[in-house]
Design a protein that fits this description.
This protein has helices at 2-28, 30-38. It has one domain (2-38). It is an all-alpha fold and 39 residues long. It has 2 helices and no strands. The N and C termini lie far apart (57 Å).
Length: 39
């Protein structure tokens, strides 16, 4: 059971890190375009 829990925690942490890495760059890019669109 402990191994299963450890695997789940590792998978969740890895997924969160991957999602964060994938989500952060787009957030850094789009804002300027949005501001340009506003102006």
């Amino acid at each position: 059971m402990k191994r299963a829990i450890a695997l789940v925690v590792l998978l969740c942490s890895a997924a969160s890190l991957l999602s964060a890495c994938i989500v952060v760059p787009p957030r850094g890019g789009p804002p300027p375009y949005r501001y340009h669109d506003r102006y």
